[in-house]
Design brief:
Elements: E1 3-7, E2 10-12, E3 18-25, E4 33-39, E5 45-51, E6 58-60, E7 68-73, E8 78-83, E9 92-99, E10 104-106, E11 110-114
Parallel strand pairs: 2-11
Antiparallel strand pairs: 1-3, 3-8, 4-5, 4-9, 5-6, 7-8, 9-10, 9-11
Length: 116
């Protein structure tokens, strides 16, 4: 069975940093494009960052570009999201997604709250 399990969320102060992890199992992680999405309170789910299967290409949403970094370790079946200089508007549930040629999988999400 395919699984994606996020971790690393929590409470962080504005201007601080947080690192999210997402561990995959049950599918061929190394050939999947991986993404982080988030759903802020009262808003639709939005794309935060995406990374290709080999890690060679990344892209970011405008609101996080320059502050967040997506990376992956195919040997550990894990994708990461390094969040720096966080803002209160980064408060959201963060989800990872794996997308293959004909299928995709979602994690359950991890809550990130940015507050002083």
């Amino acid at each position: 069975q395919e699984h994606l399990v996020e971790s690393g969320g929590g409470l962080v102060q504005p201007g601080g940093s947080l690192r999210l992890s997402c561990v995959a199992s049950g599918f061929a992680f190394s050939v999947y494009t991986m993404s982080w999405y988030r759903r802020r309170p009262g808003q639709w789910r939005e794309l935060v960052a995406v990374i290709t299967s080999d890690g060679g290409t990344t892209d970011y949403g405008d609101s996080v570009a320059g502050r967040f970094t997506i990376s992956r370790d195919n040997a550990k079946n894990t994708v990461y999201l390094e969040m720096n200089f966080v803002k209160p508007e980064d408060t959201a549930v963060y989800y990872c997604k794996g997308r293959g040629r004909s299928d995709e999988y979602w994690g359950q999400g991890t809550q990130v709250t940015v507050s002083s």
